[in-house]
Amino acid sequence: MFNALIVDKDEDGKTQSQVTQIALTDLPEAEVTVAVEYSTVNYKDGLCLGPGGGLVRKYPHIPGIDFAGTVEASSDTRYKPGDKVVLTGWRVGEAHWGGYAQKARVRADWLGPLPEGLSTRQAMAVGTAGFTAMLCVMALEDHGMQPGHGPVLVTGAAGGVGSVATAILANLGYEVAAVTGRPEADDYLRSLGAAQIVAREDLSDVTRKPLESETWAGCVDAVGGAMLGRVLKQMKYGASVAAVGLAGGAAIEGALITPFILRGVNLLGIDSVMRPYADRARAWERIARDLPMDKLETMVTPATLSDLPALGRDILAGQVKGRIVVDVNA
To answer: Is the pTM above the cut of 0.85?
Structure first.
Protein backbone atom coordinates (compact mmCIF):
# COMPACT_ATOMS: atom_id res chain seq x y z
CA MET A 1 0.00 0.00 0.00
CA PHE A 2 1.13 3.55 -0.63
CA ASN A 3 -0.15 7.13 -0.33
CA ALA A 4 -1.98 8.94 -3.11
CA LEU A 5 -4.07 12.09 -3.37
CA ILE A 6 -7.42 10.93 -4.70
CA VAL A 7 -9.93 13.40 -6.18
CA ASP A 8 -13.51 12.16 -6.41
CA LYS A 9 -16.82 13.67 -7.51
CA ASP A 10 -20.16 13.16 -5.74
CA GLU A 11 -23.62 12.81 -7.26
CA ASP A 12 -24.09 16.58 -7.16
CA GLY A 13 -20.95 17.11 -9.22
CA LYS A 14 -18.91 18.48 -6.33
CA THR A 15 -15.29 17.35 -6.07
CA GLN A 16 -13.33 16.60 -2.93
CA SER A 17 -9.79 15.34 -2.44
CA GLN A 18 -7.93 13.49 0.30
CA VAL A 19 -4.71 11.59 0.85
CA THR A 20 -5.49 7.90 1.13
CA GLN A 21 -3.76 4.55 0.66
CA ILE A 22 -4.11 2.50 -2.49
CA ALA A 23 -2.48 -0.69 -3.80
CA LEU A 24 -0.30 -1.34 -6.83
CA THR A 25 -3.18 -3.28 -8.33
CA ASP A 26 -5.25 -0.07 -8.32
CA LEU A 27 -2.87 1.61 -10.78
CA PRO A 28 -3.73 1.52 -14.50
CA GLU A 29 -2.05 -0.97 -16.78
CA ALA A 30 1.09 0.31 -18.55
CA GLU A 31 4.68 -0.73 -19.20
CA VAL A 32 6.59 1.15 -16.49
CA THR A 33 6.05 1.47 -12.75
CA VAL A 34 7.84 4.42 -11.15
CA ALA A 35 8.53 5.16 -7.50
CA VAL A 36 7.67 8.85 -7.57
CA GLU A 37 9.93 11.15 -5.58
CA TYR A 38 8.78 14.65 -6.52
CA SER A 39 5.98 16.39 -8.39
CA THR A 40 4.90 20.03 -8.77
CA VAL A 41 1.86 22.30 -8.88
CA ASN A 42 0.84 23.76 -12.25
CA TYR A 43 -2.25 25.68 -13.36
CA LYS A 44 -3.70 22.50 -14.86
CA ASP A 45 -3.14 20.75 -11.53
CA GLY A 46 -5.21 23.47 -9.87
CA LEU A 47 -8.05 22.72 -12.29
CA CYS A 48 -7.79 18.96 -11.77
CA LEU A 49 -7.67 19.31 -7.98
CA GLY A 50 -10.88 21.34 -8.13
CA PRO A 51 -13.80 21.11 -10.54
CA GLY A 52 -11.68 19.54 -13.26
CA GLY A 53 -11.86 22.29 -15.86
CA GLY A 54 -13.00 19.70 -18.41
CA LEU A 55 -9.59 18.01 -18.19
CA VAL A 56 -10.47 15.00 -16.01
CA ARG A 57 -12.28 12.26 -17.90
CA LYS A 58 -13.40 10.07 -15.02
CA TYR A 59 -13.29 9.81 -11.24
CA PRO A 60 -11.77 8.81 -8.88
CA HIS A 61 -8.64 10.49 -10.20
CA ILE A 62 -5.00 11.12 -9.23
CA PRO A 63 -3.80 14.52 -10.56
CA GLY A 64 -0.19 15.61 -11.06
CA ILE A 65 0.81 16.47 -14.62
CA ASP A 66 4.52 15.87 -14.02
CA PHE A 67 6.81 13.83 -11.79
CA ALA A 68 10.35 12.52 -11.39
CA GLY A 69 11.45 9.31 -9.72
CA THR A 70 13.04 5.88 -10.07
CA VAL A 71 11.87 2.99 -12.22
CA GLU A 72 10.69 0.03 -10.13
CA ALA A 73 9.58 -2.29 -12.92
CA SER A 74 9.46 -2.12 -16.71
CA SER A 75 8.35 -4.42 -19.51
CA ASP A 76 9.91 -2.00 -22.02
CA THR A 77 13.60 -2.51 -22.78
CA ARG A 78 14.28 1.24 -22.79
CA TYR A 79 13.96 1.37 -19.00
CA LYS A 80 15.14 -0.88 -16.21
CA PRO A 81 14.77 -0.83 -12.40
CA GLY A 82 16.93 1.90 -10.89
CA ASP A 83 16.73 4.28 -13.86
CA LYS A 84 15.97 7.90 -12.95
CA VAL A 85 13.18 9.29 -15.12
CA VAL A 86 11.11 12.43 -15.62
CA LEU A 87 7.64 12.87 -17.09
CA THR A 88 5.83 15.95 -18.34
CA GLY A 89 2.76 16.16 -20.57
CA TRP A 90 0.95 13.44 -22.54
CA ARG A 91 -2.23 14.32 -20.56
CA VAL A 92 -0.90 12.48 -17.53
CA GLY A 93 -2.64 13.91 -14.46
CA GLU A 94 -5.60 14.84 -16.67
CA ALA A 95 -6.88 11.89 -18.70
CA HIS A 96 -4.46 9.47 -17.01
CA TRP A 97 -3.50 9.05 -13.36
CA GLY A 98 -0.56 11.26 -12.51
CA GLY A 99 2.19 12.09 -10.07
CA TYR A 100 0.38 12.93 -6.84
CA ALA A 101 1.15 9.50 -5.43
CA GLN A 102 4.14 7.56 -4.21
CA LYS A 103 3.93 5.29 -7.24
CA ALA A 104 2.75 5.75 -10.82
CA ARG A 105 2.34 3.41 -13.77
CA VAL A 106 2.68 4.98 -17.21
CA ARG A 107 3.56 4.22 -20.82
CA ALA A 108 7.26 4.06 -21.62
CA ASP A 109 6.77 6.52 -24.50
CA TRP A 110 5.76 9.21 -21.99
CA LEU A 111 8.97 9.00 -19.96
CA GLY A 112 12.38 10.51 -20.50
CA PRO A 113 15.72 9.80 -18.83
CA LEU A 114 16.64 12.27 -16.12
CA PRO A 115 19.05 14.80 -17.68
CA GLU A 116 22.70 14.46 -16.74
CA GLY A 117 23.57 16.61 -13.74
CA LEU A 118 19.99 17.09 -12.49
CA SER A 119 18.50 15.46 -9.40
CA THR A 120 14.87 14.39 -9.32
CA ARG A 121 14.14 17.34 -7.03
CA GLN A 122 15.80 19.80 -9.41
CA ALA A 123 13.92 18.27 -12.34
CA MET A 124 10.64 19.00 -10.61
CA ALA A 125 11.78 22.46 -9.53
CA VAL A 126 11.95 22.91 -13.29
CA GLY A 127 8.87 20.79 -13.98
CA THR A 128 6.35 21.38 -16.74
CA ALA A 129 6.52 25.14 -16.21
CA GLY A 130 10.29 25.33 -16.60
CA PHE A 131 10.28 22.86 -19.49
CA THR A 132 7.70 25.05 -21.22
CA ALA A 133 9.74 28.18 -20.49
CA MET A 134 12.74 26.64 -22.24
CA LEU A 135 10.59 25.67 -25.23
CA CYS A 136 9.59 29.35 -25.44
CA VAL A 137 13.21 30.53 -25.35
CA MET A 138 14.21 27.97 -27.99
CA ALA A 139 11.36 29.03 -30.29
CA LEU A 140 12.24 32.71 -29.96
CA GLU A 141 15.90 32.02 -30.69
CA ASP A 142 14.97 29.78 -33.64
CA HIS A 143 13.13 32.83 -35.04
CA GLY A 144 16.14 35.10 -34.75
CA MET A 145 16.08 36.56 -31.22
CA GLN A 146 19.57 37.31 -29.91
CA PRO A 147 21.03 39.19 -26.93
CA GLY A 148 21.63 42.81 -27.84
CA HIS A 149 18.52 43.18 -29.98
CA GLY A 150 16.68 44.89 -27.14
CA PRO A 151 14.65 44.05 -24.03
CA VAL A 152 12.71 40.78 -23.89
CA LEU A 153 9.35 40.91 -22.14
CA VAL A 154 8.15 38.14 -19.81
CA THR A 155 4.50 38.38 -18.77
CA GLY A 156 3.23 36.64 -15.63
CA ALA A 157 6.86 36.75 -14.59
CA ALA A 158 6.37 35.73 -10.95
CA GLY A 159 4.61 32.50 -11.94
CA GLY A 160 6.24 29.18 -12.75
CA VAL A 161 6.82 29.68 -16.48
CA GLY A 162 7.72 33.34 -16.03
CA SER A 163 10.18 32.75 -13.20
CA VAL A 164 12.17 30.13 -15.09
CA ALA A 165 12.03 32.11 -18.35
CA THR A 166 13.36 35.19 -16.55
CA ALA A 167 16.27 33.24 -15.03
CA ILE A 168 17.17 31.51 -18.30
CA LEU A 169 17.01 34.66 -20.43
CA ALA A 170 19.05 36.70 -17.95
CA ASN A 171 21.66 33.94 -17.74
CA LEU A 172 21.92 33.95 -21.55
CA GLY A 173 22.63 37.68 -21.57
CA TYR A 174 19.21 39.07 -22.47
CA GLU A 175 17.83 42.25 -20.93
CA VAL A 176 14.65 40.98 -19.26
CA ALA A 177 11.60 43.15 -18.59
CA ALA A 178 9.40 41.27 -16.12
CA VAL A 179 5.66 41.97 -15.92
CA THR A 180 3.90 41.45 -12.60
CA GLY A 181 0.82 42.68 -10.79
CA ARG A 182 2.39 41.96 -7.41
CA PRO A 183 4.72 44.75 -6.22
CA GLU A 184 6.00 42.46 -3.46
CA ALA A 185 7.51 40.26 -6.20
CA ASP A 186 9.84 42.98 -7.51
CA ASP A 187 12.86 41.95 -5.41
CA TYR A 188 12.29 38.30 -6.23
CA LEU A 189 12.23 39.00 -9.98
CA ARG A 190 15.35 41.16 -9.81
CA SER A 191 17.10 38.34 -7.94
CA LEU A 192 16.34 36.09 -10.93
CA GLY A 193 17.98 38.60 -13.26
CA ALA A 194 15.17 40.94 -14.36
CA ALA A 195 16.61 44.31 -15.40
CA GLN A 196 13.23 46.06 -15.48
CA ILE A 197 9.89 45.59 -13.71
CA VAL A 198 6.76 46.44 -15.70
CA ALA A 199 3.51 46.92 -13.78
CA ARG A 200 0.70 44.70 -15.06
CA GLU A 201 -1.68 47.66 -15.33
CA ASP A 202 0.68 49.29 -17.86
CA LEU A 203 -0.18 46.53 -20.33
CA SER A 204 -3.66 45.41 -19.33
CA ASP A 205 -5.76 48.12 -20.98
CA VAL A 206 -7.37 47.28 -24.32
CA THR A 207 -6.50 49.83 -26.99
CA ARG A 208 -7.70 50.08 -30.58
CA LYS A 209 -4.48 51.67 -31.77
CA PRO A 210 -3.16 49.68 -34.74
CA LEU A 211 0.44 49.95 -33.51
CA GLU A 212 2.46 51.36 -30.61
CA SER A 213 6.13 52.23 -30.24
CA GLU A 214 8.50 49.37 -31.08
CA THR A 215 9.76 48.28 -27.66
CA TRP A 216 10.30 44.52 -27.24
CA ALA A 217 12.77 42.31 -29.11
CA GLY A 218 10.93 39.19 -27.94
CA CYS A 219 8.28 38.07 -25.48
CA VAL A 220 7.42 35.00 -23.42
CA ASP A 221 3.70 35.44 -22.80
CA ALA A 222 2.14 33.38 -20.03
CA VAL A 223 -1.01 35.52 -19.73
CA GLY A 224 -2.83 35.91 -23.06
CA GLY A 225 -6.03 37.97 -23.24
CA ALA A 226 -5.88 41.75 -23.47
CA MET A 227 -2.23 41.84 -22.42
CA LEU A 228 -1.17 39.75 -25.39
CA GLY A 229 -3.21 41.96 -27.69
CA ARG A 230 -1.40 45.01 -26.34
CA VAL A 231 2.07 43.44 -26.43
CA LEU A 232 1.75 42.44 -30.08
CA LYS A 233 1.44 46.11 -31.01
CA GLN A 234 4.67 46.94 -29.14
CA MET A 235 6.92 44.32 -30.71
CA LYS A 236 9.91 45.39 -32.77
CA TYR A 237 10.02 44.70 -36.49
CA GLY A 238 10.37 40.95 -37.14
CA ALA A 239 10.22 40.08 -33.42
CA SER A 240 8.32 37.12 -32.00
CA VAL A 241 5.98 36.34 -29.11
CA ALA A 242 5.98 32.81 -27.66
CA ALA A 243 2.44 32.32 -26.35
CA VAL A 244 1.98 29.68 -23.69
CA GLY A 245 -0.70 30.85 -21.22
CA LEU A 246 -4.27 32.05 -21.03
CA ALA A 247 -4.69 33.13 -17.42
CA GLY A 248 -5.84 36.49 -18.80
CA GLY A 249 -8.32 34.89 -21.19
CA ALA A 250 -8.32 32.78 -24.34
CA ALA A 251 -9.49 35.62 -26.59
CA ILE A 252 -6.77 38.08 -27.66
CA GLU A 253 -8.70 41.23 -26.87
CA GLY A 254 -7.82 44.31 -28.86
CA ALA A 255 -5.64 42.37 -31.28
CA LEU A 256 -5.42 43.54 -34.86
CA ILE A 257 -3.73 42.11 -37.94
CA THR A 258 -1.56 45.24 -38.22
CA PRO A 259 1.53 44.04 -36.27
CA PHE A 260 1.75 40.95 -38.45
CA ILE A 261 1.53 42.62 -41.86
CA LEU A 262 3.29 45.93 -41.14
CA ARG A 263 6.02 44.75 -38.76
CA GLY A 264 6.31 41.06 -39.59
CA VAL A 265 5.64 40.08 -35.98
CA ASN A 266 5.44 36.33 -35.30
CA LEU A 267 3.01 34.75 -32.82
CA LEU A 268 4.43 31.35 -31.85
CA GLY A 269 2.16 28.85 -30.14
CA ILE A 270 4.02 26.70 -27.62
CA ASP A 271 2.66 23.26 -26.76
CA SER A 272 4.46 21.20 -24.14
CA VAL A 273 1.96 18.34 -23.79
CA MET A 274 2.40 16.37 -27.02
CA ARG A 275 5.91 17.59 -27.84
CA PRO A 276 8.00 15.05 -29.83
CA TYR A 277 10.81 13.27 -28.03
CA ALA A 278 13.63 15.01 -29.92
CA ASP A 279 12.35 18.44 -28.86
CA ARG A 280 12.01 17.24 -25.28
CA ALA A 281 15.57 15.95 -25.17
CA ARG A 282 16.89 19.20 -26.64
CA ALA A 283 14.95 21.29 -24.13
CA TRP A 284 16.15 19.28 -21.13
CA GLU A 285 19.75 19.49 -22.35
CA ARG A 286 19.39 23.27 -22.60
CA ILE A 287 17.83 23.43 -19.13
CA ALA A 288 20.73 21.56 -17.58
CA ARG A 289 23.16 23.91 -19.32
CA ASP A 290 21.43 27.32 -19.31
CA LEU A 291 19.32 27.47 -16.14
CA PRO A 292 21.44 28.53 -13.15
CA MET A 293 20.70 26.07 -10.35
CA ASP A 294 21.25 28.67 -7.63
CA LYS A 295 18.51 30.82 -9.17
CA LEU A 296 16.29 27.76 -9.51
CA GLU A 297 16.57 27.06 -5.79
CA THR A 298 15.38 30.58 -4.90
CA MET A 299 12.12 29.88 -6.77
CA VAL A 300 11.24 26.76 -4.76
CA THR A 301 8.57 26.40 -2.08
CA PRO A 302 8.38 22.85 -0.64
CA ALA A 303 5.07 21.04 -0.19
CA THR A 304 3.58 17.64 0.64
CA LEU A 305 0.58 15.71 -0.67
CA SER A 306 -1.64 17.07 2.11
CA ASP A 307 -0.82 20.66 1.06
CA LEU A 308 -2.09 20.18 -2.48
CA PRO A 309 -5.83 21.01 -2.19
CA ALA A 310 -5.05 24.47 -0.78
CA LEU A 311 -2.23 25.02 -3.27
CA GLY A 312 -4.56 24.11 -6.12
CA ARG A 313 -6.92 26.89 -5.08
CA ASP A 314 -4.02 29.31 -4.67
CA ILE A 315 -2.58 28.76 -8.13
CA LEU A 316 -5.98 29.30 -9.78
CA ALA A 317 -6.23 32.60 -7.87
CA GLY A 318 -2.77 33.67 -9.06
CA GLN A 319 -1.33 33.48 -5.55
CA VAL A 320 1.53 31.06 -6.18
CA LYS A 321 5.03 32.48 -6.73
CA GLY A 322 7.81 30.57 -8.44
CA ARG A 323 7.85 26.79 -8.25
CA ILE A 324 6.14 24.43 -5.81
CA VAL A 325 8.08 21.18 -5.35
CA VAL A 326 5.97 18.41 -3.86
CA ASP A 327 7.79 15.69 -1.91
CA VAL A 328 5.25 12.87 -2.25
CA ASN A 329 7.03 10.81 0.42
CA ALA A 330 7.09 13.46 3.16
So the answer is: yes
